[in-house]
Amino acid sequence: MRNLTLQDIQRLPKTDLHVHLDGSLRIQTILELAEEQGVKLPGDSIDTLRPHVEVGDECTSLVDYLKAFDVTLSVMQTYDALVRTAYELAVDAAAENVRYMEVRYSPILHQAKGMTLHHIVQAVLEGLAQAEKECAIRTGVILCGIRHISPELSNRLADLTVAFKNKGVVGFDLAGAEEDFPAKKHREAFSRVLANNINCTLHAGEAYGPESIHQAIHLCGAHRIGHGVRLIENGDLLNYVNDHRIPLECCPSSNVQTRAVQTMADHPIRLFYDLGLRVTVNTDNRMVTRTTVSEEYLHLHQSLGFTLDEIKELIIMGFKSAFLPYAVKRAMLADVVSELKSFTPGSLESKKEQL
Q: What is the pLDDT of residue 65?
């Protein structure tokens, strides 16, 4: 079979279930927002700012990776800035045929200029809704507690998640520095979310071992696991995750940059898939990682040997794992499966020439 091209993969319908708003801005937008708001940046052009907001091979850890967010958050403290960045993220995703995307962020990180938590959520929902009107994409929002900030703030964000249930917020997450900040300290927040029948996911098994994944599932009730690469270190827990169909939100390029894995060829997503786990493919941070969903699939194709049929199965797993009502998910899946069955690789231009 011929090798797939980036253009082939861009034509496929896709999901992105793990993408951070504050890591997925356009660099030009950061520059324009900084000028509007009088914010001083470490660079005053795309070329000079890029090294401060895009992580390359020199990144040594998750902590190092997170430094870029100091820059992005500095210009994401107004209502209009959040509307714009959410809108642009959805538009950019739709341009590569992402049909469903769950955008996550932590509202408490956007209060430097006095916005209320409710306004912060409303701004992002407004931007996403605007994009949905213009593009063939559906979106949801996941609100994040932060591991290294107090559990009391996670409780506030859990209550905020409950307040916006059925209003665009589809889930709750725990993000931030993983080592030395165990998820179990945030159990109360997850209890509040689960008591209101809301989905939850946790960053776990990225910078810390399988014990972190164990806590996420058994102490916090996670329905999905963010990253989860270190699940490979505990076969018994891996079997449990597999048996209970708990999806893994894999972000291959990001995992290489944060040194959760050494190289793309080492990424355990190949093993996870071969063992039958439900794995999904995501960007994590489109700008910071400098990637797209299509590029992530291309890496899997080129470095880990995923075939077109296997990529189609990964895509279906993504839609199956969405935090959507069953009836909505089923209808979306029916359309996607039909589209995947009729898909053949090759550029649109060559197909037009054949006609």
A: 75
Name the DSSP class of 230.
G
Provide CB contacts within 8 A for 175, sequence distance 6+: 20, 104, 106, 144, 145, 146, 147, 203, 226
Annotated active-site residue 206? The verdict is yes
Residues of the domain holding 21: 12-342
pLDDT in tens, 254-304: 999 988 999 999 999 999 999 999 999 999 999 999 999 999 999 999 999
- Which one, of 85, 74, 95, 71, lies nearest residue 29 by Cα? 85
Q: What angle do CA 155, 85, 45 make, to 5 degrees?
A: 125
Known binding residue 203? Answer is: yes
Name the domain count of the chain. Answer: 1
Cβ atoms < 10 Å from Cβ of 255: 24
Has residue 5 been placed in a domain?
A: no
Establish whether 18 is an annotated binding residue: yes
pTM beyond cutoff 0.90: yes
* Active-site annotation holder among 206, 249, 295, 296: 206
User: Is 301 annotated among the ligand-binding residues?
Assistant: no
